[in-house]
């Protein structure tokens, strides 16, 4: 395993210029190791979403460095030509709502990513099904998203985030629409998957129910991150 | 790679099918409009074909007998018959009028044909029932589209005629069914005045000192007699003998008879290029309007469908879907909608509109091919707005905040 999680050094993001410039991120320092799940917590307007978009290669930071494993992907400018391929192959996303494609069944929702990466359909579906067992959605493989419960949909979304075995997964409030029991179940699954696939997972959350489960938490306030040791409680 | 467009269509097939059916009705009207134009051209050609003529001799400097009125003497045919290369010549009259049948008017082109037999220029070339006209007066052969039946009596002006034969596809260039009657009756019908008008004319002639001369007995009676007969026909139809060049025969007639002569190709040009030109322009305008409306509808539907998938498209972009896959998704859906519309439109035009339309609707396969290409092109162009909108969707929209 050559991937070494994700490392961010001195990341900055400024919107606008001159008198109207806003520094959304002033100094972000983070490191998440493979197999680790960390929380990213902060009040509204603190820069959480901006940071997630920068990490997701959706918007370009203004300055700083980002390393994915051994690869420097941002150093005061993108070092990767194809950001689409970067997002597809090396970054997994889990959203607040599952955002599954409504006209694809569970298998194809997950298999779509390897298909987009050029894998044959059969191989991509096999890759997807391998995850279903671990996420306990094997029996829903042919179901349409509208036929799934909220918890099942979120597990399919996690499978989609994991299917290409990315070194990092960005989870944007993945437990927001779930009750306590299901929220903890999702966090447990994320932890299991992080361990199983040596994936670094950053969970942006406001959810008081799950915050105590993190062993390490990054607080973000006015665009600056502060690291804190978490409680690391069990998921039961 | 799976077809995202196909999956989306299968997932919401009801929406696509019903939208496609609505679009199909519009395409059906468009195809029917093209069919109406083709029908008009076909009617014009059928009119020329069925006349059995190679040349049309008409009043000098007119575009008669179909596009303009034309009057020539009814004995002109004799002189023409004697010109070298002329195999047969016959006078003919055409008059579009209301023919009364059991108190209901039927618009028809009443055609006066000379005595003769089948094969005489102007005669209907074949019958589907009954017989040809054998008597000099008050018999008629009608096109089946008129609705007349064998043995039925119809009224043209003040006279009654018996339908003795029925024919098919004998229509004027505007699609009115033809009714054939003897030439003398047709001449009378063209110029026949009511009794009051005849009395008034006689009174005026009698009071005219130039005609009513005491020293010239018989002059007044001769003038009044000449006023009550019609010695004119609209045209002479000429059939050219085998081995003779119609253009040369036409030139001889122009030179010696000082009349205007049209060949088949010239007459076709008059009918198609002049007589139905205005209708053709109107139909062309309708076709353009319908195409624009179809484009707007397809564009609106596809735009609405695309805007309904903003979040999905943002997710697709975020997870690394290439732009060409998203373009393909939208364009394939647009084309699929057009295909559904075209199939429904073709069926509607062929099985519903053409049979019930009161004019001859000729749906030519080549027009369908062009229609199909046009529909596909319209769908591709209509999807451009949606594609632009989809490509502008920021993948960041999938991430909250």
Provide keyphrases for this structure.
heterodimer, A: 236 residues, alpha/beta, Rossmann fold, 6-stranded mixed β-sheet, 4-stranded antiparallel β-sheet, 6 helices, 10 strands, 27% strand, globular, B: 401 residues, alpha+beta, 10-stranded mixed β-sheet, two-stranded antiparallel ribbon, 52% helix
Give structural notes.
The complex is a heterodimer of chains A (236) and B (401). By secondary structure, chain A is of the alpha/beta class. Chain A has a domain at 34-48 and 83-229: P-loop containing nucleotide triphosphate hydrolases (Rossmann fold, 3-Layer(aba) Sandwich), CATH 3.40.50.300. Chain A has six helices and ten strands; from the N terminus they run E-E-E-H-E-E-H-E-H-H-H-E-H-E-E-E. Chain A has helices at 48-55, 83-90, 106-116, 121-135, 150-162, 180-197; strands spanning 6-15, 22-32, 37-41, 63-68, 71-75, 91-94, 168-172, 200-204, 216-221, 224-229. Chain A has a six-stranded mixed beta sheet with strand order 6-7-8-3-9-10. Chain A has a four-stranded antiparallel beta sheet with strand order 2-1-4-5, covered by helices on one side. In chain A, strand 4 (63-68) and strand 5 form a beta hairpin. In chain A, helix 3 crosses helix 4 (121-135) and helix 3 packs parallel to helix 5. Chain A is globular and about 55 Å long. The mean pLDDT of chain A is 90. Chain B has 401 residues and is an alpha+beta fold. Chain B is 52% helix and 17% strand. Chain B starts with a helix and ends in a 9-residue tail after the last helix. In chain B, the strands form two sheets. In chain B, strands 1, 3, 4, 5, 6, 7, 8, 9, 11 and 12 form a ten-stranded mixed beta sheet that branches. Chain B folds into three domains: 4-44 and 278-398, no CATH class; 60-184 and 234-258, no CATH class; 193-231, no CATH class. Classes of the chains: A alpha/beta (236), B alpha+beta (401). The interface between A and B is medium-sized, with 33 and 26 residues.
């Amino acid at each position: 395993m050559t991937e070494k999680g994700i490392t961010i050094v001195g990341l900055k993001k400024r919107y606008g210029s001159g008198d109207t410039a806003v520094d959304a991120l002033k100094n972000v320092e983070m490191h998440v190791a493979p197999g680790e799940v960390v929380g990213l917590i902060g009040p509204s307007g603190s820069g959480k979403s901006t940071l997630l978009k920068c990490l997701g290669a959706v918007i370009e930071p203004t300055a700083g460095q980002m390393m994915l494993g051994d690869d420097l992907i941002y150093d005061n400018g993108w070092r990767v030509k194809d950001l689409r391929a970067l997002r597809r192959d090396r970054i997994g996303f889990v959203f607040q709502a599952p955002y599954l494609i409504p006209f694809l069944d569970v298998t194809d929702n997950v298999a779509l990513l390897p298909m987009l990466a050029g894998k044959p359909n059969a191989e991509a579906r096999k890759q997807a099904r391998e995850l279903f067992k671990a996420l306990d959605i094997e029996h829903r493989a042919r179901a349409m998203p509208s036929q799934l419960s909220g918890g099942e949909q979120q597990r399919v979304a996690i499978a989609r985030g994991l299917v290409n075995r990315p070194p990092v997964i960005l989870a944007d409030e993945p437990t927001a629409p779930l009750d306590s029991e299901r929220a903890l179940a999702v966090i447990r699954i994320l932890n299991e998957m992080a361990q199983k696939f040596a994936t670094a997972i950053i969970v942006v959350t406001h959810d008081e129910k799950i915050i105590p489960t993190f062993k390490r938490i990054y607080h973000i306030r006015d665009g600056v991150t502060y690291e804190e040791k978490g409680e690391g409680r069990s998921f039961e | 790679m799976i077809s995202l467009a196909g999956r989306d269509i299968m997932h919401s097939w009801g929406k696509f099918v019903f939208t496609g059916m609505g679009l199909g009705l519009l395409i059906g009207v468009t195809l029917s409009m093209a069919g109406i134009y083709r029908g008009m051209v076909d009617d014009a050609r059928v009119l020329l074909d069925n006349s059995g003529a190679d040349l049309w001799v008409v009043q000098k400097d007119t575009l008669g007998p179909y596009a303009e009125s034309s009057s020539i003497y009814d004995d002109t045919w004799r002189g023409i018959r004697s010109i070298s290369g002329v195999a047969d010549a016959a006078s003919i009259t055409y008059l579009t009028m209301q023919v009364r049948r059991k108190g209901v008017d039927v618009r028809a082109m009443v055609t006066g044909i000379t005595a003769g037999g089948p094969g005489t220029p102007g005669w209907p070339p074949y019958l589907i029932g009954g017989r040809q006209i054998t008597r000099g007066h008050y018999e008629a052969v009608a096109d089946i589209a008129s609705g007349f039946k064998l043995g039925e009596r119809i009224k043209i002006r003040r006279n009654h005629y018996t339908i003795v034969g029925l024919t098919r596809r004998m229509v004027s260039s505007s699609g009115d069914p033809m009714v054939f009657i003897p030439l003398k009756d047709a001449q009378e019908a063209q110029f026949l005045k009511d009794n009051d008008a005849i009395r008034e004319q006689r009174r005026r002639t009698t009071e005219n000192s130039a005609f009513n001369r005491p020293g010239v007995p018989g002059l007044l009676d001769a003038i009044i007699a000449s006023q009550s007969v019609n010695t004119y026909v609209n045209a002479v139809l000429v059939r050219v003998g085998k081995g003779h060049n119609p253009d040369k025969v036409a030139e001889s007639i122009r030179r010696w008879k000082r009349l205007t002569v049209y060949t088949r190709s010239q007459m076709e040009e008059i009918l198609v290029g002049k007589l139905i030109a205005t209708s053709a322009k109107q139909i062309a305008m309708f076709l353009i309007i319908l195409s624009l409306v179809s484009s707007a509808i397809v564009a609106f539907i596809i735009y609405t469908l695309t805007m309904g998938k903003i979040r999905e498209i943002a997710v697709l972009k975020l997870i690394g879907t290439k732009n060409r896959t998203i373009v393909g998704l939208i364009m394939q859906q647009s084309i699929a909608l057009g295909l559904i519309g075209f199939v429904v439109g073709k069926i509607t035009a062929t099985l519903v509109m053409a049979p019930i339309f009161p004019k001859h609707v000729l749906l030519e396969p080549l027009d369908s091919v062009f229609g199909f290409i046009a529909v596909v092109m319209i769908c591709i162009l209509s999807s451009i707005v949606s594609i632009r909108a989809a490509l502008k969707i920021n993948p960041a929209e999938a991430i909250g905040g």
